[in-house]
Structure formats: structure tokens, C-alpha cells
Amino acid sequence: MDDELNITYITLDGHVEVHKYRYLYFVIMLTVYILIICCNFTIVCLIWIHNNLHEPMYIFIAALLINSVVSTSNIYPKLLIDFMSEKQIISYSTCLFQFFLFYSLGSSEFLLLAVMAYDRYVSICKPLQYPTIMTKSTVSIFLCLAWLVPACHIAVLVIMTADMKLCNLTLRGIFCNNSIYNLHCVSSRVRSIFGVITVIITALFPLLFILFTYTRILIITYQSCRNVRKKAAQTCLPHLLVLISFSCLCAYDIIIVRLGSDFPKTARLIMTLQMILYHPLFNPIIYGLKMKEISKHLKKLFCQTKAM
């Protein structure tokens, strides 16, 4: 505690031999962070520049990639600072803000994937009605809801958490996630109930909607011609791969928090790193390779670069 400024600091106890391998950790994480920013923004810029990519599907992809970059920027800069610091600490208020961004943006990804599933359903199953349903205003409303709904829910959780008394100032992690609940002297029943409601609204309902939507697409395309099935596979497969990847990330988060005390420190660190390493790189790679139009523009870009 800093009595003069009345600031509570939390010790991040999830690092393993950080003083011994600090430079290695720093170089690896900085390289990955630069790769994440470059890969994601390359595709976002392609979507911005090329008019034939100004369609709802590609706009949602760009939103998903921007969401991923912002989420990464919420964690990586602090991690890099911690690697080079003698003490790995964070103020409680900053910790709550990191918690808010991590879970609001994570929940937004589920909602964005749900919107993308609906977009694919209308495009494949109701192609004649697609232009009238997926208008610019509809896309804007979907994007606003995908970011605002989770932000409001997580903000309420943060407000409910902020005034709770702390009995433990050591967080078993390298950034602020659900483990902050273990710092409190007592658990709040109201907060727990609201947390469950938040998970249902921002994660479970979108996941069930996605599964229902792709099941409907599968049934309808199975009864259609080969070209329709091919189009469905080309556009839906990348979204499903990203969904599986993100679902694994969420499963990791739950496992780490629920079973964290039973996990060796090294194993917990490896699982945490998987949450923040592979998924932000996975999204642009999948969309860059599997989406035909994006892949075409990427090839042109690299060919021009080589020619220069």
C-alpha cells in the first residue's frame, strides 16, 4: 500500500524465472506483438482500400481483427514492461481496467462471430433478400451492439468489484483476469449471479445461435447444388475455425481460474501464454488464406513488394 497516494498495488505472481529469462521473454513477446499488429492491420487496410471488399462480411472481419489488436494491446505493453522491471506489480484500478477490456472485447468477439454467422445465413439461404436485409445501417447497428452490450455488462461487474475489500494482494497470473476474485475477502452472491447472466447473454446465447445458424446452412446447402455447397464451405469454414480457436481460448481461461491453485506455476504460465499468443495471429492467417478475395489481394500485394 502507498499511504501517501492511497494506491493499492497487486503483485503479478504468474511469471516464471522472469529475472533469469527477462530478455528472452521480452524479445519473443515484442516480436509476436509486432507480428500481430502487422498481420491484422494488413488485412484491415486491404479491406479499407479495395472497393470489392466493402461488403458486410469483410467489414465484420475487419471489426473482428481490430477487436483482436485492441485486446492484445491491453495486455502486451504491460507484459513487456513487467519483463524489464524488478517487481511485477499493477495498481488495483489499472488491474480492473485491464479486466474490463479483456472480457468486454472477448465477449464482443462472440457477438461479432454471431453476426457473421447470421450474415452467412442470409447470403447463402436468402440471397435475393440479402441486399435489403444487410444494409449499411443494419451493419452499423450490429457493430455497435457487438461492442456496447458486453461493455455495459462488464462495466457493471467492475463497478460491483471495485469497492470490495481485498485480503490478498498477490494475483496468480501475468495479467488481470477472473483471478482477481480470489483477492477479495468475501465473495459476492449478487456479483456471481450477475456474472452468470453476463456469460449467458454475451457468450452462451451467441454460441448457441452460431451453432444453430451453421446447422441450418449445412442442411440447406446439402439439399442444393454443388456450387452452393462450395460457396458455403469457402465462406463458412474460416468462421468456424476462428470460433473453435476462440472457444478453446475461453476454455483455457476457465480452467486456469478454476483449477489455478492445483496447477504448477510453469503449466499455468504456458496455458496463459497460449491464450494471448496464438489466437490473435490465428485470425488474420485463417482469413488471409481461406477467404478467396482477401487471399487474392494479399498475393497481389506481395507480388508488388517483390517487384519493387
TrEMBL record:
It is a multi-pass membrane protein. Residues 39-287 form the G-protein coupled receptors family 1 profile domain. The chain crosses the membrane at residues 23-49, 56-76, 96-118, 139-162, 193-215, 236-257, 269-289. Belongs to the G-protein coupled receptor 1 family. GO terms for cellular component: plasma membrane. This is Olfactory receptor. It comes from Lates calcarifer. GO terms for molecular function: G protein-coupled receptor activity; odorant binding; olfactory receptor activity. SUPFAM superfamilies: Family A G protein-coupled receptor-like. It comes from the Eukaryota. Keywords: Cell membrane, Disulfide bond, G-protein coupled receptor, Glycoprotein, Membrane, Olfaction, Receptor, Sensory transduction, Transducer, Transmembrane, Transmembrane helix. The keyword Nucleotide-binding does not apply. It is found in: Cell membrane. InterPro entries: GPCR1_Superfamily_Member (IPR052921), GPCR_Rhodpsn (IPR000276), GPCR_Rhodpsn_7TM (IPR017452), Olfact_rcpt (IPR000725). Its main location: membrane.
